[in-house]
Structure to design on (69 residues):
């Protein structure tokens, strides 16, 4: 079986509103299931590839703070 998670998630999320996407993210986090983490990674990758360096640095700083605790 040739399953491409990036392609599947991208196809599944097409046309979703910001509110829909927030619900998916919050649901995945709330469930805390390991198999949902790759999907969140695809979300992050999509964002990372379309954002500017300033936004990337801001998120990196926030992540560094979150992991320092």
């Amino acid at each position: 079986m040739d399953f491409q998670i990036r392609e599947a998630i991208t196809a599944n999320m097409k046309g979703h509103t910001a509110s829909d996407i927030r619900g998916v993210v919050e649901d995945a986090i709330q469930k805390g299931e390991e198999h949902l983490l790759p999907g969140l990674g695809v979300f992050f990758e999509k964002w990372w590839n379309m954002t500017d360096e300033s936004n990337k640095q801001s998120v990196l700083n926030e992540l560094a703070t979150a992991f320092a605790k």
Observations:
- Residues 5-68 form one domain.
- Residues 3 and 24 are 21 Å apart (CA to CA).
- The chain has a mean pLDDT of 94.
- The chain has one domain: 5-68.
